[in-house]
Design brief:
Largest sheet: 10 strands, antiparallel
Strand order of the largest sheet: 3-4-7-9-8-13-14-12-11-10
CATH topology of the largest domain: HIT family, subunit A
Strand content: 15-25%
CATH architecture of the largest domain: 2-Layer Sandwich
Helix content: 25-40%
Shape: globular
Bound molecules: zinc ion
Distance between the termini: 63 Å
Number of domains: 2
Order of helices and strands: HHEEEEEEEHEEHHEEEHEEHH
CATH class of the largest domain: Alpha Beta
């Protein structure tokens, strides 16, 4: 039987920035709930852990093999053209005229993630058991398959194709944001084994959640303390300092951030104040695609095809009275596996200074043809 304690609700509300009313409203009738995951409170570390509960999985079923075998060598690929029937039905796709949904003929395809911990068919609720508390796995998780071709990586695509990918990510973002229950949308890419990719075929993922994670709390606290946008103030200083500035175009700027957690961590940021990725003007997409392509091509060349992650940080959706935000893209190569120090202290050790990384990247980009 579910127990809802005011204290626990206040705690959930505080950490996840949701109103207690919304938690209460949705937390009746747990019996009807069909949860696929529990987001469990880690009391020791004052954090949260997503634990999949709704499916039996054997260790050998885990998507990334423990021996680190190259994933492309495994044969069948559900994201390749012709294998549409083995994925869940597509949500959106760009298709050649005359081709039917869930058949070949697409150039980019958004589908639900088959192996997800989140579902919009479950209710958002919180429950306690003694000292423990957890939330249900309400949300969504989808995949954007960037190309029907198996062996073309994102950085190998022409800028026009990268524009098509960004445009699809924006369309999915706007579509998810229409669901008023969704408060936060995280778009990301896992590339390579150390980046957490479970399939070699180039793709992005989008998770949507009914609460706002606390990960970018520095943005909020800076805005509350100064009344300014942290990212806008960072850009002012980076333009003065110059040493971490990699590249500028009319509307975007590329920096290696002052406190880079990862070697060659690189951010692509709108130069003007812009809170929501969904507001990215259509006419700026080709410019963003061209600049992102330069960053990726150079990074892949300098670091010899590393695993990496790419994430789009953007403002929460469907929430009021929150501090301002400024969307940006982060790219971080995964050259080493984060180990005991990072896991135990949360402090990252980065062996390449952002100033050096910026210089190297700037030089490599200057050698690229326009
Ligand atoms: Zn494939
Ligand atoms: Zn700003």
């Amino acid at each position: 039987m579910a127990l809802l304690l005011g204290e626990k609700l206040a705690e959930v509300s505080y950490y996840w920035n949701v109103s207690i009313g919304s938690v209460l409203k949705l937390s009746h009738d747990f019996e009807r709930r069909n949860s696929v995951a529990e987001i469990r409170k880690d009391l020791l570390r004052d954090s949260w852990v997503v634990i999949a509960t709704g499916r039996a999985i054997r260790p050998t079923d885990l998507p990334v093999p423990s021996q680190g075998k190259p994933l492309k060598a495994q044969g069948f690929c559900p994201f390749c053209e012709g294998n549409e029937a083995v994925t869940p039905p597509e949500l959106m796709a760009n298709r050649r005229p005359g081709t039917e949904k869930n058949t070949p003929g697409w150039t980019i395809r958004a589908i639900p993630n088959k192996f997800t911990a989140f579902s919009r068919n479950t209710e958002f609720a919180t429950e306690t058991n003694g000292i423990y508390s957890f939330m249900t796995g309400f949300g969504s998780h989808e995949v954007v398959v960037e190309t029907p071709e198996h062996d073309i990586e994102l950085h190998q695509q022409p800028a026009e194709k990268i524009s098509e990918i960004i445009e699809m990510l924006k369309r999915r973002h706007l579509d998810l944001a229409q669901d008023q229950r969704i408060k936060f949308i995280q778009t990301y890419k896992n590339k390579g084994l150390f980046g957490g990719a479970s399939l070699g075929h180039s793709h992005m993922q989008i998770v949507s959640l009914p609460y706002v994670p606390n990960e970018l709390k520095g943005l909020d606290s800076y805005a509350q303390a100064t009344g300014n946008c942290l990212i806008c103030d960072m850009l002012k200083q980076e333009k003065q300092d110059q040493v971490r500035l990699v590249l500028e175009s009319e509307n975007f700027i590329v920096i290696c951030p002052f406190a880079s957690r990862f070697a060659h961590e690189t951010w692509v940021i709108p130069k003007y104040h812009a809170r929501d990725f969904g507001d990215l003007p259509a006419e700026q997409i080709p410019e963003l695609a061209a600049i992102l392509r330069k960053v990726l091509v150079s990074m892949v060349d300098i670091l010899n095809d590393p695993s990496y992650n790419l994430v789009i940080n953007t403002a929460p959706v469907n929430v009021e009275n929150r501090p301002d935000h400024h969307w940006f893209i982060e790219v971080f190569p995964r050259l080493i596996v984060q180990a005991g120090l990072e896991i135990s202290t949360g402090y990252y050790m980065n062996l390449i200074s952002p100033e050096w990384a910026a210089e190297t990247l700037k030089e490599k980009i200057s050698q690229l043809p326009d």
